[in-house]
Amino acid sequence: MAGHSHFFAHMARLKLINRWPLMRNIQTENVQEHSLQVAMIAHALALIGNEYFEKEYDANAISTLALYHDASEVLTGDLPSPVKYFNPNIAKEYKKIEVIAEQKLVDMLPERLKKYYQPLVCSIDHDASQYQIVKAADILSAYLKTLEELSAGNHEFKRASEKLNEELDSLPLEEVKLFRETFVESFKLSLDEISVQS
């Protein structure tokens, strides 16, 4: 028998961790819903890469990796970017804390399941080619959040939106460019506008 594990009880609490904690939000966003959106976008990026740019991504593996990309935040919380990246020393020390938290989560699992979750939860074990897609999806998700807030009249997200847009511009991934051209404009529209048949 595997015995009791608190792993998924912890994962369920990701919905209690709010993102963007230093900013006024019209609609709060928690880590669990963010992770779902990142998984959806990462899956789409992988499919776009395969279909349009002759890549050979494993879209299902990438979307699963995306589901767990912020798992450690259930133990560390979501440290705001201005704090996390205030200087290189803080970023380096916080990364050490993340690695410890990731391993603590994996250690909660039954022994026979650890090998499956280790490469999903532990950033030092991530497949680099898959994680670049997850990271791009993570940035896209954050950018889409800023567009939604701006569309709702919240100018608090203006600078964040500009910064994330610049980050996206700098990514050397064709699939990100095509995703943006195809899907991003809709996030600036109202429900009525996206409900009209094109």
Write a concise keyword list for the protein shown above:
single chain, 198 residues, mainly alpha, Hypothetical protein af1432, 11 helices, globular
What features would you describe in this structure?
The protein has one domain: Hypothetical protein af1432 (Orthogonal Bundle), CATH 1.10.3210. It has helices at 7-12, 31-53, 59-67, 73-76, 81-84, 88-107, 111-121, 128-151, 158-170, 174-183, 191-195. The model has no long low-confidence stretch (mean pLDDT 93). The chain has 11 helices and no strands. It is mainly alpha-helical and 198 residues long. The protein is globular and about 50 Å long.
List the helices and strands and how they pair.
Elements: H1 7-12, H2 31-53, H3 59-67, H4 73-76, H5 81-84, H6 88-107, H7 111-121, H8 128-151, H9 158-170, H10 174-183, H11 191-195
Question: What is the gist of this entry?
Answer:
This protein has 198 residues and is mainly alpha-helical.
What CATH calls the topology is Hypothetical protein af1432
Unreliable spans: none
- Strand portion: under 5%
Tell me the name of the CATH class: Mainly Alpha
| SSE-based structural type | mainly alpha
Number of domains: 1
- Could you give the order of the helices and strands? HHHHHHHHHHH
Count, helices: 11
Main β sheet profile: none
Mean pLDDT across all amino acids: 93
The radius of gyration is 18 Å
Shape: globular
Q: What is the strand tally?
A: 0
CATH homologous superfamily placement = Hypothetical protein af1432
N- and C-termini, Cα separation: 55 Å
Helical residues, percent:
55-70%
What's the CATH architecture name?
Answer: Orthogonal Bundle
